[in-house]
Amino acid sequence: MRKNNIGDYFAAPLTAGLIFLCVALLKGFVPFGNVYPDYFDMGQSSLTLYYHIFDVLHAEKSMFLDVYSGLGQNMTITFTPFMFFFYLIPREFLRESMTFYILLRIMFCAFSMKFLQKETSPSTPKFYTSAFSIIYALSGYVLSYYVFDLWIDVAALFPLLLLGLARLLKSGKCRLYTAMLTITLCTSYYLGAITLLAILICSGVYILMFTSAHERGKICLDLGVWTFGAIALSAPCILPHIAQVATSMRFSMSVIRAANITDKLRLLMPCTLPLLFIVSAAFAKPNNVRQKTARFSLIIIFALCVQIFVEPIALAWHGGSYITSPLRYFFVPIAFICAAAAHFLPNGTDCRRTAHGAVLGVVFSIALIFCYSTLSSPAATRFFPTAMCGVFLLLYVLFYRKNALIACVLTAEICFCAYVLVGMPPYKGATVEQNGSFITVTQNIADELQMAPSAVKRVKNADATLNSNYPFVMRRGALSNWTHLINANLQKNAKALGYSAVYTRLLDSGGTVFTDAVLGVTEVLSSNELPKAIYSALESSSGYTLYECKYTLPFGVVSDGEILRYDFTAQDWIENNNALFNCIGGVGTLISSIEKNSYIEGNCAVYIKPHGRCTVFVNGEPLCVPTMGNADNITYPATFNNELLLCGVFENEPLSITTHPSTVPLTIGALNLSALDRLCSDISRTDVSFDKRNIEASFFAEADDVLLVPVAYDSGWGAQSISGFFLGITAESSGENHIKLTYTPPLFIIGLIIFAIAAALMIFWHFLLRKKNTPHFLLFLTPKLFFALWAVAAAVFYIIYPLQIAFGG
């Protein structure tokens, strides 16, 4: 890189960043206003994971494990190449920094695309290489999907991967390709797999069109060696992730929601001019190498974009299922379009007057933005931008060789599309969960109530009014979790004990005061008043009251060996509570089944499980079923409160429970608080610590007794499973036992071994290639294997699987 060219690399990212900041200013994003850009998954899920990354970078947590959420969860999914950003931001301002985190990745998108174009199109005028780099950075894909953090991380790196692929195919240079593919796979094995498919399809077309038969052996061998080498180098990340996904709730679900074709086309904005350049060059005369290259580009674009119009092919590329957000790989065709278009400027292009046109384009874009802002109809806001792309295309055709006017229209399209795409789409309604407002509330609660971080003194948001991922922010252990990748057995067993769940979320709402004690819950947060008989109010903040639980158990309880053979999912909640109670030393029956009209003898907490949609009345008063966004809701089931409901605490008094409609059946149980109190007083004390990725326990037990540790079961602990829910540690001897467990993600060690072997073999192969001693049979066999794989992939993803989906196979 020569010194006088350094500015060329930064003009595009700085301009893209400036455009984004101007739009952020107009839309009032923090810090320019009070609007947070953390809608959809960014606020619900991604942003909370940044708190985990922050804690890892500051040595407060292990990269492998989060001790706070979901009873302790595998966190090998959280690698991001931009994670250094979170080291520079104070933890309390992570949410406020999101505008700048988005800005960072947008600018890197522009930088990487500019870097690609400077090498592949060195003679193209700076205006157009910069413009196409800005188009990639402010494309519909980047601005619509920045809320899905890892997708944009991969998109930001992809132009460098594409450059590495071009170097590998043309000259056999492998380093950039191998490095970028390895980082991509470590960032997201899911998008990495789709990227590998795109590489296979595109490389096959390139090799067929541009290489001779005697060259193909070397090219295919290089591509195969360094592709599989990158996969092997990423094994320490990929294998643990796959092991986790294979047992997760997300993997056990298959939900398809077809996408609106307009929303798919929106991802291509604002690529109108680059596409026009490529199409024009493909059909220009005479028929030469330039035209052949343009036709190659059109074939690739068609292969990658036909999914916009053919839904079964789109589903095939996504493994048969996606929810709401289609074409998740679409940074690939957009990058290809922007990179290829730089080759195909009209002959005789002169950019001396483009600056004047760009200034006029800004004025034009302001007028368009004003028109768009006046639209009030959701249909108009959905279709107007797509319709405008047709207008832009018409203007490009009319002014095809008039550089100043082309620059004007191009600038207007970029600015207009950026304004339309940034932020919550006006035609999509946002539910209360789809933003990060709970993060501010959670931080305020933790600060004002001085809730110190703890993995073993757990908290419960009884009314489910906070987002499922609040434990990441609060740094207090809890059952609640929403990372998509919780173990399916964890959710099923929690539901069997009466806790709520929705989709891949696991929630705090539900359960009993006894199961809370087993989980290690010592405090409860609620925006509603809780019964004084089982909870003591401490302090209040931000509309929430912190309660202390009156009934608690040690973090880790000794049980008999039968607990290892018990299956919570095979019984109902009453049987499960009673069986667990007896296994850990409880005497008699903890919960008795009662009728709707009963006389409560003794001191009991009454829980119900309705089996249908209804309103429940307890002694004539409607029972509150609080849920996110509506703490006063009385309709059951609520989305975030759909299992056990606490009716209250009753002592030697009559109880009447009715429902509306009256035909809805109920399961009602009275929990004997006296029996629970005796257990809490008499149970053997244990000393269990849970920190970073270690569990240390000291406990007295008989031989073959089992220490039930309320940490989510994962084979990476090397402990036994209690119904696929808790960890079980068998006592080594009668008397005092001392145990230490260290968490290692499943298959991580195998991944490290594969990494080491692959690195050694790749070094050996690299030096073998330099000596040009490649065995002849490899050069003969590799192209045949490559094109067999290429043909199979094309048939499966474009014919066989789409037909199977289309005809309901």
Rounded to an integer in angstroms, the radius of gyration calculated over CA atoms is: 30 Å
Oligomer: single chain
Tell me about the largest β-sheet: 7 strands, antiparallel
Count the strands?
22
Residues in helices, as a percent range = 40-55%
Estimate the global geometry from the Cα principal axes.
globular
Strand content: 15-25%
Average pLDDT taken over every residue = 91
Summarize the structure.
It is built from 26 helices and 22 strands.
Characterise the protein shown here:
With 809 residues, this protein is of the alpha+beta class. It has 26 helices and 22 strands. Strands 10, 11, 12, 13, 14, 15 and 16 form a 7-stranded antiparallel β-sheet that branches. A hairpin with a 2-residue loop joins strand 17 (686-691) and strand 18 (694-701). Helix 4 runs antiparallel to helix 15, helix 7 (175-187) packs across helix 9 and helix 9 packs antiparallel against helix 25. The mean pLDDT is 91.
